[in-house]
TrEMBL record, chain A:
Keywords: Molybdenum, Oxidoreductase. GO terms for molecular function: iron ion binding; oxidoreductase activity. Residues 21-139 form the Aldehyde oxidase/xanthine dehydrogenase a/b hammerhead domain. The keyword Oxidoreductase applies. Pfam families: Ald_Xan_dh_C, MoCoBD_1, MoCoBD_2. It comes from Harenicola maris. This is Xanthine dehydrogenase family protein molybdopterin-binding subunit.
UniProtKB/TrEMBL annotation, chain B:
One of its GO terms (molecular function) is 2 iron, 2 sulfur cluster binding. Residues 2-78 form the 2Fe-2S ferredoxin-type domain. Keywords: 2Fe-2S, Iron, Iron-sulfur, Metal-binding, Oxidoreductase. The keyword Metal-binding applies. It holds the Pfam family Fer2. This is (2Fe-2S)-binding protein. It comes from Harenicola maris. It comes from the Bacteria. PROSITE patterns: 2FE2S_FER_2. InterPro entries: 2Fe-2S-bd (IPR002888), 2Fe-2S-bd_dom_sf (IPR036884), 2Fe-2S_ferredoxin-like_sf (IPR036010), 2Fe-2S_ferredoxin-type (IPR001041), Beta-grasp_dom_sf (IPR012675), Diverse_Oxidoreductases (IPR051452).
Length: 787, 161
């Protein structure tokens, strides 16, 4: 570990002190003078005609300030979608209006029907119960296959069908892929479900709208991963408030995992209502509300086919997926099953021909959007499962089959439109074999067998495209936003540094890791650097934190801004030392003249910038503050290999995760402790998906898993200590830090390892089981064992 | 609304509550002690864990009125007298036992209760005791490690720092 606390040091997190002492400042901790409270009356049916909403009695209840219904928002913009996918026939996707409050129809359980603003939350809730709603039930569209069938009830009457888009990728390769399948020596086919999940950050969403009648300024405090995105979407598309009259603040945020990226109706409501009642309006989601209003994740049904030649080389891959969009298009929903999924189907392998078809489907369920990994876990899961199945069909070692087909030369252009800059899949697999003690597995298996248990081992690889993303590329792919990041570096007169970043930290530890970079660049202590984020009033326009992009894109913006600072500081130093600028070197917090003993301290230069008495005013301005916007040249491509060992009780189908190992290549690492923590958390979410979590609707569109009583969150007893390693490092070639990002890897890489391990255990136990859909609950495993 | 009086973090406090007001709501909204969090509405997540008369309690499972006259301790009362981090808090920082921080107050309160009952818990005992506390960020790895370190056990052999 570097002694100076710079890049590569496991500095302890400075933000921990406030979180550990109860002094964090989350959105629900903010209370404004004169604040009112809103309670949303939500639909308890999945699909119906909203015949009447009678608020007369409720409006006369104690404490009620005002009640809003869909009528009040009829002239207000809908909640926008930020990505437009073009289908395989060149047509743009079907895009329904998404009202802030339901109007005319309700389309999922949880959709807002009315909003009661009152003096207290209890009074708002009491009054909401007195609202009389008359809904004429319509058949609910829940199952995707049924939704696409001819004559299905339509979720949206004004659309031609429940098909949002039919996407083909790469469409031009389709015939060649089919031909390769015709010529294949072996084809492995697998049908699977990528189960629907609820992200469940521990902090439920909160929004507080505030309006200043004196200035006409609106402020929204919200639990967001990207306050500028919310400001842009809500201001420009929903409420028509220009950005200079709208401030969005996302203070301490208690986890996001994707579901706090999106702009939600509740945010627009609180901002709108605060102006209407001229008082702050606060909404705090209950967990029950979160289950029926936070965007869900995953929910793909897939058929994948892998073609191999006689030497077991992968020759082609073909996949066919139905992706659930829910009732409306959430902010980035259309991109998840397409550009964040299809482009990853090459994985770590040199499969020359790939065709991906995705049909996105509207249903009467909560909207589905990005959840940790977003599209990439779905790609990895199907690919790594079908490879495992192929290995078993062919009677070859699953690891050997993977190794044989690894991409080994970089840069590598895949047949699915991305170019991997670096990677070393052999190295991460070698590392994994060492971490997981694969050579000792047979002894562990025999020992378990002696106790009557089936021990299984599952391995998989993953690749992800993160550090999203080049703006010109995503623009061509349908993004309605750029995906750069920004930073302003402000050096104060006495040498301290403030970095105002468009990235947002909601658990990732930016307040600790970002200063390590600046400390390294200048040669000052990290505690001289402060990170400001989460408030559009004091940070430059930024796109926020998701897609493992903070250090790769936000960190790069910070480096670019700091480079401008250093260049200017060198000019000042050159002036102070009467030397040529080209001869100035910055090291350990001091500027020196090459080849001489002349030097000036960092603090002398920063002071001169603000007290410019002896200063080259004719050449440069006073002050030391610079902004940079960094737009990446490519995605980054973290990769790795994961192994899971399970022990299964053949009497019950119950199994335990005995070991989980991860060998990741994240390129360069800023703070190893934080990186390890990100991987731990990601793996736990992947273990959750593969053995516990399942978001279930019944045929009426009622959510059956709407609380922690029936949605199984991973608990401490469900997971072991993890063995993670990131010593394999092939630095990214196109960003200044050589970093790739680590936030999503664990969630992307872990589900196939676990399922592969359970299938392995069952097959070793003599069961002819090739697949069980996630989550692998004891009942599902037991049922599979019964044939 | 009735007037309630109790001891919170060693100080006698008074405040108003309806009969239906939960202890967690009273702590957060009446006493402005916002360190105690609400993460669910089914008493599953443990983010609202406090101590009442020395016992760990999920403060969403108790009416404020039931705490009349009680001795309540919250996360705001867990640091050392000089304001420095207590052994438990320091262990969580040292071993990266928190990420977003939202479940953390509950984890610290639960840890204090565990170590009072069982000063040197095994890994299995720690995991079992955390059954009522959900964390979505850490995968529990570093929480378990922090708790074992706080109990004075050597955790250097546990994989990864």
């Amino acid at each position: 570990m570097p002694a100076d606390g710079g890049i590569g040091a496991s500095n302890k997190r400075r933000e921990d002190v406030r979180f550990l002492t109860g002094k964090g400042r989350y959105t629900d901790d903010i209370n404004l003078l004169g604040q009112t409270y809103v309670h949303f009356l939500r639909s308890d049916v999945a699909h119906g005609v909203l015949k009447s909403v009678d608020v007369a009695e409720a409006a006369s209840m104690p404490g009620v300030v005002k009640i809003f219904t869909g009528e009040d928002f009829a002239e207000v913009g809908g909640v926008p979608c930020g990505w437009q996918v073009t289908d395989r026939f060149g047509e743009v996707m079907q895009e329904p209006r998404h009202p802030v409050i339901a109007h005319g129809k309700v389309r999922h359980v949880g959709e807002i029907i009315a909003a009661v603003v009152a003096e207290s939350h209890a009074e708002a809730r009491d009054a909401a119960e007195a609202i009389e709603v008359d809904i004429e039930d319509l058949p609910a569209v829940v199952d995707m296959r049924a939704a696409l069938a001819e004559g299905s009830t339509k979720v949206h009457d004004d659309l031609t069908s429940n098909l949002c888009y039919d996407w083909g990728f790469v469409e031009e390769n389709k015939e060649a892929v089919n031909a390769a399948f015709e010529a294949a020596a072996h084809v492995t086919t697998l049908e699977l479900v990528n189960n629907r999940l609820v992200a469940n950050p521990m902090e439920p969403r909160v929004a507080i709208g505030d309006y200043a009648p004196g200035t006409g300024d609106s402020t929204l405090y919200t639990t967001s991963q990207n306050p500028h995105v919310i400001r842009l979407l809500m201001g420009a598309f929903v409420l028509g408030i220009p950005e200079h009259k709208l401030r969005v603040v996302a203070p301490d945020v208690g986890g996001g995992f994707g579901t706090k990226i999106f702009h939600y109706a509740e945010e627009a409501f609180c901002t709108f209502a605060a102006k209407a009642v001229e008082r702050p309006v606060k909404w705090v989601s209950s967990r029950s509300e979160a289950f029926i209003s936070d965007a869900h994740g995953r929910d793909h049904v897939t058929k994948i086919e892998l073609a191999l030649d006689a030497e077991n080389n992968f020759t082609a891959l073909r996949t066919d997926t139905m992706a659930n969009m829910g009732a409306y298009l959430s902010t980035f929903a259309p991109s998840v099953p397409t550009w964040l999924h299809g482009t990853l189907m090459a994985g770590n392998y040199k499969t020359p021909l790939i065709y991906v078809n995705v049909k996105a489907v509207f249903t009467n369920t909560v909207p589905v959007d990005a959840y940790r990994g977003a599209g990439r876990p779905e790609a990895t899961y199907q690919l790594e499962r079908v490879i495992d199945k192929a290995a078993r069909e062919l009677g070859v070692d699953p690891i050997a089959l993977r190794r044989q087909n690894f991409i080994t030369e970089f840069p590598y252009a895949t047949p699915v439109a991305v170019e991997y800059d670096t990677g070393d899949y052999v190295a991460t697999m070698d590392k994994l074999e060492e971490l997981a003690d694969l050579s000792g597995f047979e002894a562990r298996r025999a020992e378990a067998a002696a106790r009557g248990k089936l021990r299984g081992l599952g391995v998989n690889c993953y690749i992800e495209a993160c550090g999203i993303a080049p703006s010109n590329l995503v623009g061509q792919l349908g993004a309605r936003a750029g995906l750069y990041e920004s930073a302003t570096v402000r050096v104060n007169a006495t040498g301290g540094v403030v970095v105002m970043t468009g990235s947002h930290s909601h658990g990732q530890g930016h307040e600790t890791s970002f200063p390590q970079v600046i400390a390294d660049m200048i040669g000052i202590a990290p505690d001289m650097v402060e990170i400001v984020h989460g408030d559009t009033a004091n940070t430059p326009m930024g796109m926020g934190t998701y897609g493992s992009r903070s250090i790769a894109v936000g960190g790069s913006a910070m480096v670019r801004a700091a480079e401008k600072i250093i260049n200017k500081a060198k000019k000042i130093a050159a002036h102070l030392m009467e030397a040529a600028e080209a001869d100035i070197e910055l090291k350990d917090g001091a500027f020196s003249v090459a080849g001489t003993d002349k030097s000036v301290a960092w603090g002398d230069v920063t002071l001169a910038a603000y007290v410019p008495h002896n200063y080259p005013l004719e050449d440069i301005e006073p002050g030391l503050e610079e902004t940079a916007f960094y737009d990446p040249a490519n995605f980054t491509y973290p990769s790795g290999a994961y192994a899971c060992e399970v022990e299964l009780d053949p009497e019950t189908g119950h199994f335990t995760v005995e070991a989980f190992c991860a060998a990741d290549d994240f390129g360069n690492i800023i703070n190893p402790m934080i990186v390890d923590g990100q991987v731990h958390g990601g793996i736990a979410q992947g273990v959750g998906q593969s053995m516990l979590e399942n978001c279930v609707y019944d045929s009426e569109g009622q959510l059956m898993s709407g609380s922690y009583m029936d949605y199984a969150m991973p608990r401490a007893t469900d997971v072991p200590f993890f063995n993670v390693d990131h010593s394999c490092q092939t630095p990214c070639t196109h960003n200044p830090l050589g970093v790739k990002g680590c936030g999503e890897a664990g969630a992307i890489g872990s589900p196939p390892a676990l399922v592969n391990a359970v299938v392995d255990a069952l097959q070793r136990g003599g069961h002819d089981i090739t697949h069980i859909d996630m989550p692998l609950s004891p009942s599902r495993v037991w049922q599979a064992m019964q044939g | 609304m009735t007037e309630l009086s109790m001891t919170v973090n060693g100080k006698t406090v008074t405040g108003k509550a309806e009969g239906r007001t939960l202890l967690v709501t009273f702590l957060r909204e009446e006493l402005k002690l916002t360190g105690t969090h609400v993460g669910c509405d089914t008493s599953q997540c443990g983010a609202c864990q406090v101590h009442v008369n020395g016992q760990p309690v999920k403060s969403c499972t108790m009416f404020a009125a039931e705490a009349e006259g009680a001795d309540v301790r919250t996360i705001e009362g867990m640091a050392n007298a000089d304001g420095s981090l207590s052994v438990i808090q320091q262990a969580f920082q040292d071993h990266h036992g928190l990420q977003c921080g939202f479940c953390t107050p509950g984890m610290v309160m639960t840890t204090a209760a565990l170590l009072k009952e069982n000063p040197k818990p095994t890994e299995a005992e720690v995991r079992e005791y955390l059954e009522g506390n959900i964390c979505r960020c850490t995968g529990y790895h570093n929480i378990v490690k922090s708790i074992m370190a706080a109990s004075g056990q050597d955790v250097s052999a546990i994989a990864a720092e």
